[in-house]
Amino acid sequence: MNVNIHPGWKRCLQEEFKKPYFEKLIDFVKSEYKSHQCFPKENTIFNAFDRCSFADTKVVIIGQDPYHGINQANGLCFSVNDGIPHPPSLINIFKGIEKDLKIPYPKNGNLEPWADQGILLLNATLTVRAHQAGSHQKKGWEQFTDAVIQLISREKQNVVFLLWGGFAKKKVKLINTEKHYVLTSGHPSPLSANRGYWFGNNHFSKTNVILKQLEEKEINWSIT
């Protein structure tokens, strides 16, 4: 299996990679990719860890599952490949940014520019079978990504966690809230957003206020 991951993460997670559950998980993923169409592409499964190093991580956004449509997922939560129409949740994320920061709605939905600035765009499950949402859940990915969240909480300080929706909010139990910042709101999905649980949370400007107070470089939320 071709794994692209930043050397800093490799060092931090080397013991996790040796655990029996992870070895069993990788065997499952290899089998799935061999016998079915799965997403994202095999060489971008760990894209979140390759684009954003452990040392550079200052913001974490948690998603649940990769997109399961053709050519959508690129290994970053909520992100789609260049030129792909924006899914509903991503549309509402960009509308939220537009409302919060007056940044124009972008043409491109690839969030790699965010990852390159220190945002870990982490799905709880890193792979999925085509057109079968949740098909790779409860196979070991959640144990791995929970370990990643705990590692960040334990080894770093002053990271901003953005937890959107009920699933992500449950991850707060893995985070030391005395040394990190946690912002919660409804999910950007239409069901939640249209009920008023997403728009107006201003998480993007709030994140930059925190980073400025910490004398960290603020995030440029525009996608160019």
UniProtKB/TrEMBL annotation:
Q: Report the HAMAP family cross-referenced here.
A: UDG
Annotated Gene Ontology MF terms? uracil DNA N-glycosylase activity
Q: Which superkingdom does the taxonomy of this entry point to?
A: Bacteria
Quote the subcellular location field of this record: Cytoplasm
Extract the SUPFAM superfamilies matched here: Uracil-DNA glycosylase-like
The catalytic activity of this protein is classed by the Enzyme Commission as 3.2.2.27
Q: Key word Membrane present in the record?
A: no
Keyword Cytoplasm in annotation: yes
What reaction(s) does this enzyme catalyze?
Hydrolyzes single-stranded DNA or mismatched double-stranded DNA and polynucleotides, releasing free uracil
* Species assigned in the record: Winogradskyella immobilis
- Please give the InterPro entries that the UniProt record associates with this protein: UDG_fam1 (IPR002043), Ura-DNA_Glyclase_AS (IPR018085), Uracil-DNA_glycosylase-like (IPR005122), Uracil-DNA_glycosylase-like_sf (IPR036895)
Task: Extract the PANTHER family matched here.
Answer: URACIL-DNA GLYCOSYLASE (PTHR11264:SF0)
**Alphabetically ordered keywords of this record:** Cytoplasm, DNA damage, DNA repair, Glycosidase, Hydrolase
| Active site per UniProt | D65
Protein function: Excises uracil residues from the DNA which can arise as a result of misincorporation of dUMP residues by DNA polymerase or due to deamination of cytosine.
Q: What is this protein called?
A: Uracil-DNA glycosylase
Residue limits of the Uracil-DNA glycosylase-like domain? 49-211
Similarity section: Belongs to the uracil-DNA glycosylase (UDG) superfamily. UNG family.
